[in-house]
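A protein record in our archive is deliberately plain, so that people and models can read it alike. The tokens are whole numbers drawn from a learned vocabulary of local backbone shapes. For reference, a complete record is included directly beneath this paragraph.
>
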Amino acid sequence: MASLVSSAGPGTHLIPKGLFRKSTHLIGRVVVALGLIAAITLICFRVIPVNATTVGFFYLVAILSIATASGLVESTIASVVAMLCFNYFFLPPIGTFTIADPQNWVALSAFLATSLAASQLSARAKRRTKEAIDRQNEMERLYSLSRALLLADTTRPIARQIVQQIAQTFEFSTVALYDRTTGEMYRTEVDDMSDIEAKLRDAAVRSSVYRDEESGLVVTAIRLGGEPIGSLAMKGAPLSDPALQSLLNLVAIGLERTLSQEAVNRAEVARRSEELKSTLLDAIAHEFKTPLTSIKAVTTDLLSAPSAELQPHQRELISIADEGADRLSKLVTEAIQLARIEGGKFQLSRAPHFPRSLVSAALRQMNSLTDGRKISASLQDDLPQVSADAELIQMVIAHLIDNALKYSPSGSPIEIGACVREQDVIICVVDQGKGIAEDEQSRIFDKFYRGSKEQALKGTGMGLAIAREIIRAHGEDIWVKSKPGKGSEFCFSLPIAPRSGGE
């Protein structure tokens, strides 16, 4: 811990260097105090003879000065020595410690009590003044540190700036910071701190405190919400416990700010990346639109030609190309929709609508794609109006119906229903397909996810993702209930439209 010094000779005890220095300073101050008492005694006894009352006054002034300049120990020793000198040199019989007049006993006792009390009061006042000044300096430095941390450059490592600011503000010779979250160690380059890295890590794990009074080294844990998030080592002038705790709180806030800033940066990078992907997808999809339109026009024209003009195998190939163009056109359309939704390039046009009208409009859009499948919509007439963008909600319903058509047997029915739940209307599309495994249900709304291997070739993988984003834009939710072999039920909620003032 502390280095040791020893005096010569066998059997001599080792004395800590810090204690040796303190003892030497104390002895020096005591010698100065005794010298002052001796000087007063010599002047008043030999140079300028005065009466006992004046001498006692000089002694008291000297003792108050010693208490103010040095401390209680020095002033107490000076009080006892002054009392002895006062008795020996100025109270009859002079030259002896005997007091002939009983009244002088009272005077001597009063002098000793007064000098001791005065020295204690003076030392206490000095100590409190020093403490007040130290606390004020600490508060000013803590304020300066907090201001510096608030103005820290977020483009540079904040933990490194914290170390530099602490060392500069509190004039510590060395500061080291261990961030438990990242495992990084930051330090000033004034001293070699490699010997305390273990103490820093131990303090961060065990929330322990290490102090070395000789060197002024303090190693302590940094806590946030009661949990240690790192540790701090400082070497220099000691801080009071409240100031140290305030400093640790500032460091904890600084480290938390680092984590928050990193999270914000990652979110910003992710957002920009998503915007870039959406923009590229939108641009590519639009580039596909023109040639697809031309291909569709050609295949449609060829298929409308009389049967005699085309060989059967030619008509079959053209039909395949026509179906592929339809599928690719649908994929491009959905890609454009998804890119616009994710890129925030659409705005909701909310208005009150009856759920039945939204479902009916979606069924009309899907009429040519149902291949005669039975789709029953059982919606009550007394359902309240919902606040929604009709065009987008019809798109959601169309995607859910299309999904049910793809993943259920051709002869099975599809049902659409709705009900009221608190302040929402719930619309559901139910099929009799193979169902969805529980581990897949949380993924089917992800982009380009198309279920298990046997279903992988069906669909584009964007329909449910588009539906989810549209419903989320309305501030609502979409979910699925399904068990393997028992079909699936896709539901989403819409807010009930507020009643107008006249109703």
Q: What stands out?
A: The mean pLDDT is 78. Residues 135-265 form a domain with the Beta-Lactamase fold (CATH 3.30.450.40). The longest helix spans residues 241-303. The radius of gyration is 45 Å.
